Amino acid sequence: MTEAELIDVARESVTVMMKVAAPTLLASLAVGLVISLVQALTQIQEMTLTFVPKIVIVFVVLLVSLPFMLHALVEFTRQMMDHAIVGGG
User: Fold this and answer.
1) Which end of the chain is more exposed for a tag (fewer CB within 10 A), N or C?
2) Cβ–Cβ under 8 Å, residues 86 and 49
3) What letters, b where the CB count within 10 A reaches 16 and e where it falls short, cover 5-28?
4) pTM, whole model, 2 decimals?
């Protein structure tokens, strides 16, 4: 495996990782931002108030985006296996 191929594999790995992680991270970020805004407006500074909505939203987003995540990971695995077979090891 040449250096260029190794860099391509690393770049593709990072891209797939970001595609898989982005939905849950963005949902958690959005919920945290909204709750922080509500806390600032109402002056309710309860630390545990953010956890329950974040957990629920992240769970829902995971359930909704799981097929997309699985497809991205399976496609990446197929590409790596094809590369390993064609590349000869």
Assistant:
1) C
2) no
3) eeeeeeeeeeebeebbeebbeebb
4) 0.79
32: left (phi over 0), alpha (psi -120 to 50) or beta: alpha
Q: Read off the pLDDT of residues 30-85 as tens digits, 9 standing for 90 and up.
A: 999 999 899 889 888 777 778 888 999 999 999 999 999 999 999 999 999 998 88
Q: Rounded to an integer, what distance in angstroms lies between the CA atom of residue 34 and that of residue 61?
A: 16
Residues 6+ apart with CB under 8 A from 9: 1, 80, 83
Domain ranges of the chain: 3-87
DSSP code for 50? G
Which tokens is 55 given? 């957990």
**CA of 80: how far to CAs of 22, 41, 46, 84, in Å?**
22, 50, 47, 6
CB contact at 8 A, 35 and 52: no
